[in-house]
What we know:
The chain is mainly α. Helices cover 65% and strands 2% of the residues. A two-stranded antiparallel sheet has the order 1-2.
Amino acid sequence: xxxxxxxxxxxxxxxxxxxxxxxxxxxxxxxxxxxxxxxxxxxxxxxxxxxxxxxxxxxxxxxxxxxxxxxxxxxxxxxxxxxxxxxxxxxxxxxxxxxxxxxxxxxxxxxxxxxxxxxxxxxxxxxxxxxxxxxxxxxxxxxxxxxxxxxxxxxxxxxxxxxxxxxxxxxxxxxxxxxxxxxxxxxxxxxxxxxxxxxxxxxxxxxxxxxxxxxxxxxxxxxxxxxxxxxxxxxxxxxxxxxxxxxxxxxxxxxx
Length: 256
């Protein structure tokens, strides 16, 4: 199916204009010739009767009328042949016009496929960059886990509306999907959004309101700040208990 460009009305056809038909004008002339022939044939009975009654000059009139009928028949036959030719030429012209239109459509079709390939190439390049960056994020997550201060624990914390972005300290797949959904572009025909097939947020509240979804990075940064504050608070409490223990006991382990 030939793809319409944005803004085109349904049913609009693009291609060469249909050639003007030759057959209608010839058909009209043939109809006139057949009408004239019919009138001449109706009159022949009158001239034949006069000739049968041996009226003066009737035989000559009949002979002249016969000549007119033959000429009219010849003209009608010629126009009928001309009409058949005109109809065939019209069909050929219509077929040629349709072929030209399809050739133009094929050119447009190939152009859109080239654009499709280019766009998917960009998508796959972005996918490669995302895969590389996600590997770096995962390594940083492991290092952060290993660097957790002694005696503390990373608090469980979720991000996004209705926790739809998933746990703050985790693989982050739900946040990535939500972000891809939030950033999905509007279709030019206004029929919705072009959302990556796998990028569907879990929350029905945000599913239909991507413009109201907070940016994933903002949520992650806020969650990181809250986690760090929580761990710092845990450290303060540990330090305070350790200092108090150091003042009241001689046990080195209790003061650690």
